[in-house]
Model the fold of this input.
Amino acid sequence: MLKIVVVGGGAGGLELATKLGRTLGRKRRATVTLVDRNSSHLWKPLLHEVATGSLDEGVDALSYRAHARNHHFDFQLGSLCSIDRDKKTITLAAMEDEDGDLLMPEREISYDILVMAIGSRSNDFNTAGVREHCIFLDSLNRLTVSATR
Ligand SMILES: Cc1cc2nc3c(=O)[nH]c(=O)nc-3n(C[C@H](O)[C@H](O)[C@H](O)COP(=O)(O)OP(=O)(O)OC[C@H]3O[C@@H](n4cnc5c(N)ncnc54)[C@H](O)[C@@H]3O)c2cc1C
Done:
């Protein structure tokens, strides 16, 4: 069966994986796999509400695993670290816990069609000190890390 892999479950990738799952996945015409380095998705325009404490991401974020199950696609938690276009495989980095103990080894996923939807990075316009000191409002991880400092 055709293997479609979408890397990045943001605004674009999540929508695509959901549509492909509901069409090709449901009819078993393709396997659709979504990969993201986080286990849940939060719509970015809501990030300022997390930053100000008026929204609880634990309650309001969408669980990729649950969403995938309801929409006929697979979800793989992991961070893309390389692509082998000749072998048609991607590699997801090994995962460790906070103590550095291995949770899951590096693994490969093969594809027939690969969609890259990993978003973008905030631009600091080369302004000195911004990258080191600014809290970018572009991901939950950064907000969580900043809040615990
Ligand atoms: C604060 C804020 C407010 C915004 N407000 C609006 C708005 O009101 N209206 C509007 O239209 N747009 C808004 N935007 C812009 C909009 O959020 C983006 O245009 C949109 O999210 C881009 O979608 P994307 O799928 O390209 O990337 P993203 O939504 O950024 O998704 C990228 C995904 O890829 C994953 N990823 C990245 N690297 C890897 C990797 N190596 N391995 C595995 N997974 C990876 C990330 O975890 C993420 O889930 C806003 C953005 C921000 C930051």
About this structure: Residues 7-13, 35-38, 44-45, 47, 79-80, 117-119, 137-138 surround flavin-adenine dinucleotide (CB under 6 Å). Residues 44 and 138 are 7 Å apart (CA to CA).
